Amino acid sequence: MKRRSMTAIACALMALAATPAGAQKVSAVKQRAVSGVEARAKLAQEINDSIFSFGELGFQEVETSRYVTEILEKNGFAIERNVAGLPTGWVARWSHGEGGPVIALGSDIDGIPKASQKPGIPYHSPLVEGAPGHGEGHNSGQAVNVVAALAVKEIMERDDIKGSLVLWPGVAEELLGGKAYMVRDGVFEGVDAVLFTHVSDNLGTAWGQPTGTGLVSVEYSFHGDTAHSAGAPWRGRSALDAVELMNMGWNMRREHLRPEQRSHYVITDGGDQPNVVPSIASVWYYIREQSFAGIAKNFEIANTIAEAAAKMTDTTVTRRIIGAAAPRHFNRPMAEAAYANIRAVGLPNWTADEQAFAKAVQRNINAEKVEGLDTELDTLAAPVADPKSGGSDDIGDISWTIPTITIGYPANIPNLPGHNWVNAVAMATPIAHKGVVAGAKVVAMTTIDLLTRPSLLRDARDYFDKVQTKDQKYAPVLASTDKPAVELNTEIMARFRPQMREFYYDPSRYATYLEQLGIKFPILDNPPR
């Protein structure tokens, strides 16, 4: 595996370091952090490939959580399981000495429905037809964090650096179903800073409010009475009619909402069979906006429309909060520190085979640009005055509680659609392996910064208190009575897991998952006709 040399990284670190002796010492420590990550590159690959092979959906990340916590436990971390009412939630803690900063490293672990895909095949080729898979790339983040944490732990012990490392998973992120519950239940109390990692096609970070939204995820259930649909329909009260009327009302109202809003729904229960008037029907909404006030306003509009639909059909309606995500806001001093490390690490040196594979994937899906893998770093720019609308991530709830940044690492191919089988194609190939190692270096170096530079933590808290939360405060959606929807995806995983288990990666027998599957990288074929 070809990587940026230690000599090049050392030179970059020296150039970025300030002149005082203390800064030079930190630079030397960060060089050892880079070496510690490189020494664990094989472990990073095994974690990445193993979690890819599990392919678990939100709330059902049983194998993933067991696997990662076993690794951390063997390395001296104390594990708390079933946190915040999440059966696959956990927190791993390790401390050296008394006091010192508490730095938390997090990343998501869930997959995408119907995204099963053989890695290294540049066209659609499921491992198990119809099964879930890592069509977002969430298999890679724990590899980044675990390897970075172990490299930093080794340095803390050797150099007697006081502090604590806390690792945790983003459970059911695709359902926005985990982090807000963890915040509500105090999982992050006492944490000084959070480094969150997420798969990307470049190595970067950001500060301020990025493009995207926050949201409330809510299911409305209508209740009526059954009757024979042909024999006595007048005796029935159709819950499905209420669902359809609510959807019609919401769709009419869209014209009068801000263009930046996003909302979408699926009917989760439409009745049993046509000749029985449905007595129960449900619809599940994601209601997104860019501010706490905007989310609250649109949520109330949806509630009003639901009540109106119930009145029109002589039914009743109940609602259940399934998940929530605050609009994100990331910490400037922490982002600037991380970006200095990003510049020192740089993008991986992609081989001709890796570039050819990336272009083959882009061509096969008719991507707008067929340019292969990125070779220039993203810049760290000031946030735009008017961020665009878009997706959500419940890291937002943590970012309004503790100084937080997200570090993206180059483990995937640019110009892919997202939430799709094609986003899984590269995620257990040399592209992902290199990207994970690059990300782990940045996370390890930035963790060292946070542990050894008290001024950085002070500046981060100052930004959080005086800039981020000056005009807008955290307004959580969840009530104390709301509970995670841990039953979701149970039936899907029960149906597919026996077949998926046949494809679990066995690192004791195979160097890589590609080797286990008999896939020789790179395959550059066109889709079969």
UniProtKB/TrEMBL annotation:
<protein>
    <submittedName>
        <fullName>Amidohydrolase</fullName>
    </submittedName>
</protein>
<dbReference type="InterPro" id="IPR011650">
    <property type="entry name" value="Peptidase_M20_dimer"/>
</dbReference>
<dbReference type="Pfam" id="PF07687">
    <property type="entry name" value="M20_dimer"/>
</dbReference>
<dbReference type="InterPro" id="IPR052030">
    <property type="entry name" value="Peptidase_M20/M20A_hydrolases"/>
</dbReference>
<dbReference type="InterPro" id="IPR017439">
    <property type="entry name" value="Amidohydrolase"/>
</dbReference>
<feature type="signal peptide">
    <location>
        <begin position="1"/>
        <end position="23"/>
    </location>
</feature>
<feature type="domain" description="Peptidase M20 dimerisation">
    <location>
        <begin position="214"/>
        <end position="293"/>
    </location>
</feature>
<keyword id="KW-0732">Signal</keyword>
<dbReference type="InterPro" id="IPR036264">
    <property type="entry name" value="Bact_exopeptidase_dim_dom"/>
</dbReference>
